Fold each of these.
Amino acid sequence: MTIEIKRALYNISALADLGQEITSEKDFSDKIQSVLYVIMGTFLANRGAIFWYEKDKGKIIPLARKGFDAKGAPKLRIRLGHVLPMKKNEPYSLVEGQGTAAFRRFRDGAVQTGAEIFVPLWVRDEFIGLIVLSNKFTSQPYSPEDFELLKVIANQIAITINHHMLFMDLSHQLEENRRLYEEMRRIYHDTIQAFAAAIDAKDVYTKNHSQRVAKYSVAIARELGWEESDVEGIYIAGFLHDVGKLIISNELLNKREALTDKELLELRRHPAISYRILSKIKFPWKNVVKMVKHHHERLDGTGYPGALMAEDLDEGVKILTLADSFDAMTSVRAYRDKMALLDALVEVKRCLDTQFDGKIVAAFCRVLEKEIKGDLPEPNILPHLDNDFDPSVITGLLEALIRELKD
Amino acid sequence: MKATNFKVVSRLAGDVAVVYPQGYLNNLAGESLVKECNSYLSRGVRKVVLNFSGTDFINSIGISLLLHIMEGLQEGGGTLCFTNLSKVHRDTFEMLGLTDHMLVFGDEDEAFRHLDAGSGT
């Protein structure tokens, strides 16, 4: 085999090495360092560097280098103006290069650092960076064949760097979009919470009621294995379920005496009013408006506003109904004192299948039991209840209910 | 890409460091070989024998790393001997014109005899 053939085989194997490195799943800086080693090993260069042109800052910065960063050695400083006149992706010999006096000054400085070959990297009309190589370890000159091979390598590296930088740009953009989305989401939640506080403020007895209903609903929905986006939807529905009360007079909402039939009818308008207000809003979550509209329906069809039967009610509606009723039971109202937890649970049990769905009640009991036992790191229900109950009695009742509902 | 766990073992025999690259010298793990040789240099050891009996494969990355070692020894006024090179590796180094700049021996004993004789690079 002639030396030319051996050399050609070595070059082919170097190109294969380059391909392997470029397509490897390595970290980008390791990949570029490996690519630099491939080039230096192919051309036997003592020193080498791969630079990237950071367009936003107008700077040419090193991605990988070897030998050019030695302590005390003259620094290799490259400006865009030095490189732009060179041909795209073609090796340029500093030793042989001519040019203006300014370029010759730059060239002499670069040669002092040991640089001998520049290969400007371009993708179409975009300058990407450059490869810099020193002379060869063997002191042989770069041959025309070397230059041809360097051109091929330069094209590959230009595309690799360009792809990576485009990907990084997209990643940054995605990250920024995510940050903006989170910020908007936070503002949205804050606005809804402020709105809910305004609703609850109308009735002195329902302070924080909307927040509690939201939290209880979230606890039940999570226990039922809902997707987090749906959980967020019921959280919002919980906050807004009584928005229609904004239209109901304060006198009626705070009336201590029993309501007349006419007043009851007026009060029962609030879910439909809530629906009318909220249906103008395009929520990013499913069924928010539907859950709000029907949170006073009952399984036996005696609820309002639609007098819907159990089979027409979605799980979300059933959850919101239980959360709303349970909070009403365990809170003071204008016309009655709050119920003890035990009594509220007994009442929930009594209303099974007429007002409350067994599957939802079972989930509620499970999550409450877990919270009492300290099994949940962030309880949603327990912090809002009076702590004057006997945990063993309550958990006994919850376990019995869970068993009963399982059978 | 051939990839095995590359590792470097070495020993000090008198004033000679004998370094054994083991595995494929074809990726960034090979930088540990450069570091090992440099660490002997920084401790004042000026004679290094690189025994390639445990190295089956050297690619362009490996060649680049060996150039760093050769240059480091040259600049530090040391002597670097290559031993136990396979025929393929020896042919490659020869084709690249590197053997004119290397001290290549069949085995460690030959390298030691050369170093004992006080020959430079």
Amino acid sequence: MSSILNLKEAERKAFRSTFQDGLWDIYLGLLLLNWGIGLLLSKDVSELWTMVAMLALALLDMLAFWAGKKFITAPRMGLVRFGPARKAKVKKVGVLLSLSVLVGVIMLVIGLAVGRHPPEWASYGWIVPAGVFGVNAIVVFGLGAYFLDFYRAYGYGWLYALAFPANIMLDEYAGITFPLAYFFSAGIMVLIGVVFFLRFLRDYPLPAGEA
Amino acid sequence: MATAQTGKGDLHPLADIDRVIHAPARLMVLTYLYVVESAEFVFLMRLTGLTWGNLSSHLSKLEEAGYVAIDKEFRGKKPHTMLRLTDEGRAAFREYRQRLKQVLDDLPD
């Protein structure tokens, strides 16, 4: 009885149920995979076309995510509108993500500048953008996990954070030019998402009656 | 006629508890509807683990009591049954919760 009267926990359970389908895991994994694909493409095509391809892939990921939520999750799980407190939390995460993108763009510009004209003080110029990228990922994913009660995102922050420096180190010290770290980190996230997705399909078949 | 005195361990307030809410399934439904703005029938079914028929029957009782509003919406060509607590239902749930807490808190260890 006491647990049913714990309204915070009930609200959390209701909200967490929206992550049971694994689509967020797959989506975040695919976004990281895009970076790896971008690096692969950049060896053969110009920077501009690489950016265009990455943008197209990001849009494709977003479209697949939206379609999955609309045509697979919603009919099985049903729709819910949360209260003002939860909406405010989601808004906070939106602001954080926007800031994160901004930091990402600044980091990219710094990275390009440092990469092309490395100053003498930075013999390992890549540490600066890699560090900013890593801290940014850990902070943003951590705060997102906290505000959205999406606990797997704590781990995803680390996977994002480690992919960038690990990839550079593999390239620099082991001579592995294939963006292995991105594919590895993204693969873990996509795999977790697929497991959740399959479990979701098994546990929540399409309801027989009229909704 | 002697009147019952209320005090520590007195269970009389339990008799005044809202029986429409007190059934476990309905209490679950109301708890979830209390913490969201509105939810679709299917969502509530998934969250509570109740069957289609069971949830329908409990919702009918809650609707009769004026605690739950059932709105039929169309998204495209598909019908959706959206559920939300009425102001009366929200007040009744708050009062139920307060009363039950008081009874449980007053029980001796």
Amino acid sequence: MSVRTALRGSRSRAYVVGVAVLIAAILAGLLVGPVRIGAANVFRWLLTFGQTPSGMSEQEALILAELRLPRVIVAGLVGASLAASGAAYQAVFRNPLADPYLLGAAAGAGLGATIAVAYGPTGAIDVTVPVAAFVGALVGVGLAYGLGRSNVGGRGATSLVLAGVAVASFLTAVQTFLQQQRSQTLRQVYTWILGRLGTTGWDDVWLALPSVVLAVTTLWVVRRLLDVIEVGDVEAQSLGLNVTRLRLVVVLAASLATAAAVAVAGLIGFVGIIVPHTVRLLVGGSYRSVLPLSVLFGASFLIVVDLLARTVVAPAEIPIGVITALVGAPFFVVVLRRNRRAA
Amino acid sequence: MGRPRTILMAFALALSLAACGSYGGPDPVATGDTGGSPSEEAPAFPVTVGGTNGSVTIERQPERIVSLSPTATEDLFAIGAGDQVIAVDDQSDFPAVAPTTELSGFEPNVEAIAGYEPDLVVFATEPGDLGASLEALGITALQLDAAPTLAVAFDQIEQLGLATGHAPEAETLVADLQAAVDELVAGADPSSGLSFYFELDDTFYSVTSKTFVGQLFELLGLRNIADAAGKGSGGYPQLSAEYIIEADPDLIFLADTECCGQTPETVAERPGWDGIAAVADGGVVPLDEDVAQRWGPRVVDLLEEIAAAAEAAGANAA
């Protein structure tokens, strides 16, 4: 309740809460793990920018620097990307169920990864799979956008979504077929699809960072226009907005972010739906605040979920996609019921 | 209505027979050691054998066996029933003389299997109702699913011996395998206290001592770092990288050399892994993935490999 009043109070206060939650999530992500590392040492390590304090073993320093820190950063980047893309898609498609995978990004990424696993060089899978997934996601969205747009008739949003459904089904069918042809690759594709932050390293940070920063910044810049386009194409047009161009920019940016997220983390469902809807419940519907807060809370949410994934059954792990869906599905029902009551 | 369909079916049958003819069974020259010498007395049929799908009665000695299980294929050839095998699934790649076909054990196509006109089909996993579908076509089906223990794996060899009329050979083979296992176990040093990590894939899935493979290591007195994570994982937990680094195993066994292209070199390159004892002291052992995933006669080779690695690591530590 207090969080809610705090957020309603003013937008700047909402940002303060968002940043505080993110910092807390990052610290928790660094402090907690299957290996116990003293909190005081972790703080000293952080404050000296990675100098190993006297009380810390070489091994603990390695675990912090090479495993936990990149993992927390990637979880944050992926969470921010998925939440921001979800919020943006929900605006331009005027569909509260739109998620970052709506236009075939997931199916394209899955196909790309399967091709890389099945036909790529076996030695370089760490590199080829993320890159192929990234390209696949962009190809998937590109196809959906190209096909949906050529069906002009003023019903831009709907035909895009329908083209997305068709493209996704087609690409998934191709992927399943290839997988059957090469059944020995089944397990690898499967673990990849379930989401994987367990093997995250700095390579993944460098792979995702440029696209995520570019895409999220773009969405952040156009966030005011999202409010306009959400009202309707005709209304937005009458207000002097180039709807087609804005939708293209948003779809491009959101797809870039999604592609980067899929490439380094596999498919992680529900983040793109839960986070923007929670933010809407807390601060109301304007994208001026929904988008930035989705970025902050999306990053925090995925860092915390990943923390659960690696600690609940430690020293084993739970695939992160399982937890987001486990938390996300019931939450989603609650959001739906609230919406119905409000309507 | 009936006539065109009959013609079609005959055509399909002819095609598949032609297809199987082109495989032509094992090369007679190469089968010297695998195609069996006939037993002294003619084997008695019918016999009833025990499979995962219950008791199966086999009326006559099978002459046209289809194996959809790589393990069963290895078993059949090892007991001298190779000459009776007319087709094996696409994953059955050992021994090399096995008549590999396009048949799939994962996504079995009943019609394609029936096209070989088998008198016995051996399979491991059962997606859908493979056994029932084959029985409905009058084809005897024997399921031998993944063995949970060595004893079950050896029993499967003996059941296949009975089913194919090679019971004496199967008994001899099992006795030899058991003797080899006993010798390896007797030679192991149970007080070595060596720990190991068994890697199923490059996202750190592993096996606990409750699994078939895990038991082999237990036999040799090795300590499995995945056991701490086994609860609720069905025996196949996914480990945290930081846990593996902290557990600091003396040996790492890679069962992901083919699937995921892992080698001792790629393991050493993983962030933070170079400090692990196994990596620092050359204790990373690439395994034959197929052998590690099957429960056939070559399990003894695997056990030998593990024992050799343990001995080397023990000598290192001493």
Amino acid sequence: MLKIEKINFKYGDKKVLNDFSMEVREGERVALKGSSGCGKSTLLKVIAGLEKPYSGKLFFDGKDVTTLSPHKREFGYVFQDFALFPHLSVKNNILFGISGYKSSERKVLLKKYTEMLHIDSLLDHYPNELSGGQKQRVAIARTLITSPKIILMDEVFSALDEGLKEKVRLEILEVLKELKITTILVTHDSRDAEVLCDKIIEMYPI
Amino acid sequence: MKIFKIEDGIIKFFLLALILAFIVLPISDSIPLLFTPSTPYLDVLVEKGILWEYLLNTLELVFKVGLFSILLGFTSSYIVTMYDFKFKSIFKVLLTLPLAFPVYVGAYTYSSIFYTNKWLGNIFTGKLFMEGSVFIYGIFLYPYVYLACRSYLKDNLVEYIEASKTLGKSSLETFIKVIFPLSWPAVLGSTLFVIFETLSDFAVVEYYGVGTISKVITDSWMGLGQKDTAAKASMILLFVLTVIIFSEKILRRKKRYEGISDRKIKPEKPSGLATIMIYLFLSIVVSLSFILPTYEMLVFTIAKSSYIASIDLLGIASNTLITLFIAIFIIIVISSIFASIVNQLKRGKKFFSTIAVMGYSIPSLILALAVYIFTLSLDNFIYDLFHIEWLVLMNTRTALVIALVIKFISVAFSNYSNSLAKISPNVFHASTMLRHNFLGTFFKVNLPLLKKPTKFVFIILFIDLIKELTLTYTLRPFNFKTLSTEIYRYAGNEMIEVAAIPSLVIVGICSLMIIYLELGGKNVKNRKDKL
């Protein structure tokens, strides 16, 4: 489904990814694990199209998407800091990516994902009124509602406290399994990788 | 644990009261004049509908100036933040340089440019641009919006833009749905500054013949000597200002969206057509706001270079500089003490900060009138006491310095407050624990920490004060000449070419200072913190 071929990436003179290659099959949940500075978040951004590699190729379903802009890739991205739009309510944050859909369709999808992630009571709240766990669920719902071909998750559990982490992990796992969605998770925490993913790729700084 | 000794509280209370009295007392002294009976001049203005017309003109002026500044300032800041193109760094500096122009200098210079370039005059001196005044305020004040938005866009939006793009939105959709709504509070806040500056000036509207409330104040005070009429008209201007401030608060809904991380936006290379549009837009803006008027002034100065000897430039410059340095010194001393006290307060921080920055939002004419009334009553008191035959305070620039301090203390106070707020409170607690009282801590900890911001505070104050006309013109001692008053005098006597000489001195010095601030990494965006 997703094939990465010899991707190279540099920040200024500092090489972050060196001839990195990997493959992800449909429905697979892959963890990119490693210490900070090993380039795992950069790789996720390259996959999303937010960063451009200086060499290498990225194929999705056999099609070269290396230079395709992020909004045309139809991948979903859950940011480490969730990046919820502070000027929009929870409801409008979640609907942001499907504003072109019919109203009735949007209603159905909104109900489905907010119930699935147990945030249906928060729709009129604003991001600054939410806890870390609630923000995370909203960010995931906002991404899932667009029916992405792949969901990319960048250290999404790092902002949560230890007590909450395990519960949220299991809940998210349930959702991902139910939707059978291809997932790439970036994490430095072995437990995240073990619980959520069926394949773990270790990355090391260059 | 008790952090401060009792005498600390007394010292702080005494200093706070003294500073507050210095700021508030001169302003409050004009209040009784508001309750005197109406004057014949005011009655005529009301009966003939002139006052109403002037009020509408004032509202139209600030609305249009605000819109024009947003158009120029926000667009320029968006371009330089989001795109990477050749000569960008030069454009970035050039876009800030209109701040070096006092608006009245811009008005006088453009009157000649409009005369020789009729097509330009036809565009910008019509009803839409209210005889040219909207153009002048907008083109020379938009850098307030540009600087605030440039800093906001660069530092706060990267995550939201990325999120929008990964949610399938194009650049245009991202701009409409994310960038502009998030930047809106910063846009409004900085536009408010443009409006303050517009309301504080009287020379531009006077020169272009636009009747505003400022005209009523100047005519009644300086023309007819009717302080009470001027005070009543001031109330109308203050009412306009209050409406504007509240509108801004309602529109902004008290929001300001901060970025999530310290990542900065990575500018993109624009497409071919976009590159042409960018160069065209920026070239027009910098040409109209800096290059063209500077060129015009240079031509005038060369043409009238024989006048330089007769102007007594040295005497005028020394008058300007001495007044300026006295005011800056007092501002720096007062604001550093005030900011240090307010920084340590557990309650009332917001209240005292508001008092300190209040002066900046009061239109200069109103402030001048208030200080004039205050110092006049003090002079009368001194006469009663010592029978001194002349007005001690009015004739020794005391009134002028008091007004300058009240007006511009916010610049220094905001910078010092921000600097102190970034330092852990434990630093000050440590000093107290090491047996230093407030004054000891102030001299040994606060002052050394405030050394760095003082350099920038000094430059920003210098730029603001050297350009200042309204307070200087109205409160200067008799026959006291400064660069700004001489520009006003020459321009008023239809000697615009001669006025270009002192104008060029101001613009030259301010330009160098702004370039230094821009290249020195600390831009003038801190001006927005005055509020």
